[in-house]
Amino acid sequence: MSPVIPPDHPIRELFSNAVNDAFRRRSDLYSPEIASHLSEEMLPGFVHVDHIYRLRSLGGKPLRALPGMIDCAAGKEGPERNFEVNLYIGDFVLFMCSFFPTLVRSESRRAPTAMVSRVGGIIVSFSEPLEYYVAEGRNAYNRAARTAAAFDPSSRETCRKLSEKLESYLEVLRMVKSYLEKSAMPGGRGGVIF
Fold first, then answer.
1. Cα separation values, 27 from 110, 147, 172, Å
2. How many folded domains does the chain comprise?
3. Does 80 map to a domain?
């Protein structure tokens, strides 16, 4: 559970309702583990802006660019930390590409780093930032799944599924965003504004 939002906070119920609503429409993608991960871990973990960019450089500054995050994931800090960083990168990609795709496009276009990623066994250069993010999100979830195999089989399966069907889960999160936006409207279910 995310340390940011208390377990009994009403926003957790809102996130759970939003995720369940999205999976009712995409029942082919539903798994209890993924629904739980999205509503109890990922979404609460990104509520506060200071937690969106929670990875830090060696100098202690927040890493805002995806290439820096990927470099952080390559560190030799042990399997648990490796899993945590790669899971965060996958979740970051899923969150940013579904909730803030325009920001991803604009931030990535200003980045001086080439958008190059390994897709299968091939190195691919991307011109579209969202495609680059999706490729790196898939890679991060895949690395997290491989690392989790040693100490957390249930997380391994969740990460494997997220890696294999990342584009489909982006669609699910876009439905969650839509639900939350409707909740923020007058007469809606809550007061969340994006």
1. 38, 28, 10
2. 1
3. yes
